[in-house]
Amino acid sequence: MELSMAHTLRILASLTFVAGSALAQGTGGSQASGGAGGAQSVDARVKALHTLLSEQWEYTLRTSPEFASILGDKRYNDKLSDFSQAAIERDIAQNRVFLTKFAAVDASGFPEQERLNRDLMVRNLRETLDAVKFKDWEMPVNQMSGLHIDAPQLVTSLSFETVKDYDDYIARLKQLPRAFRQVTVQMRKGMGQGLMPPKILLVQVAKQANDLATQKPEDSPFAIPTTKFPKEFSAADQERLRNGVLSALRDSVLPAYVRFTAFVRDQYAPHGRTEIGTWSLPNGAARYAFAVRRSTTTKMTPDEIHTLGLSEVARIEADQLVIAKKLGFPTVKALRDSIPKIPALHPKSREQILDEYRHYVDQMTLKLPTLFGRLPKAKLEVMP
Q1: What CA–CA distance (Å, rounded) separates 245 from 170?
Q2: What's the pTM?
């Protein structure tokens, strides 16, 4: 579930380990330039890096139990994440510890992929800690994510194969009131500091929560696992588990949704931002610049990127004008306006559309090495 910037970025940082583990399988023995002693030193440091990656990965699974469940790791299936301030502060402190450890890894002599594993983890952890000053955990809901919609969506990602799976699920459902209380505390803090989503989005949040709050237990998406039990379950187990899920919904989950709906509708949404741009948040310019840096992985400022975009548009439009004039049109707009009226420019079949896109992809593929230093191994394919 995506309930805070710190929570989300920690998961993103940990995904480096997934890639790193796969890559490590293919690196084989380490290469070094300093003889047998040097080779052993590199091997030992690579092994230490793998141990550290494993430690960080296990920490993520333990503190993000929903994420673990989505991956099929059922060790924490009976738990929900802790969204309290104490948990947030522990997570920040632990990320500082991990950053210190990863930054201390000497990657000299490492195979390229191993060095990349280390560098990506350091970068992700630094960005995670850089984001702390923005306190995005105090704006934990919007119309796209938040406990109110992440929790029911999680159900579709879980597997229910054993009686224990269902018992764990019931235990997890009973923790939703606690999670909603913790999230609401963070939202109240955000209200006091001007960290508010746009009001127009919060109106939708209230409606989303109310739709779930007003459903009958048996009609709730949380009840989906009770609609089909594994055939080997006894009738007694099926009845007990169904009653357990419906009871948890009736006594814990739905009342929590009712309270959350009332809070968002009556107290939170009225204080939502009237301006939707990130700039309207406290420290908005720095917040936006951080988002740009994280999304683009460049050191360009937002203004520099905007200027680059304008220059690219101008360059492309100049190229289009050359084409337009070759075709007998005085302007690009005249060419565009004429396209619907020229049958020869319209594809005549489904396959022709696919072939056209394949042709463009092939053209672009030839240019990629001149624009990027690292290319994906898998070829982009256009398929119906």
Answers
A1: 6
A2: 0.82
How many C-beta neighbours within 10 Å does residue 219 have?
Answer: 10
3-state secondary structure the chain: CCCCHHHHHHHHHHHHHHHHHHHHHCCCCCCCCCHHHHHHHHHHHHHHHHHHHHHHHHHHHHHCHHHHHHCCCHHHCCCCCCCCHHHHHHHHHHHHHHHHHHHCCCCCCCCHHHHHHHHHHHHHHHHHHHHHHHCHHHCCCCCCCCHHHHHHHHHCCCCCCCHHHHHHHHHHHCCHHHHHHHHHHHHHHHHHHCCCCEHHHHHHHHHHHHHHHCCCHHHCHHHHHHHCCCCCCCHHHHHHHHHHHHHHHHHHHHHHHHHHHHHHHHHHHHHCECCCCHHHCCCHHHHHHHHHHHHHCCCCCHHHHHHHHHHHHHHHHHHHHHHHHHCCCCCHHHHHHHHHHCHHHCCCCHHHHHHHHHHHHHHHHHHHHHHCCCCCCCCCCCCC
Question: What pLDDT shows up at residue 27?
Answer: 46
- Alpha-carbon distance values, 366 to 106, 313, 382 (Å): 37, 22, 16
CB 289 within 8 A of CB 301: yes
Three-point CA angle 222, 226, 232, nearest 5°: 145
Position 342 confidence tier, pLDDT thresholds 50, 70, 90: confident
Using CA of residue 298, residue 300, residue 306, residue 312, what is the dihedral sign?
Answer: negative
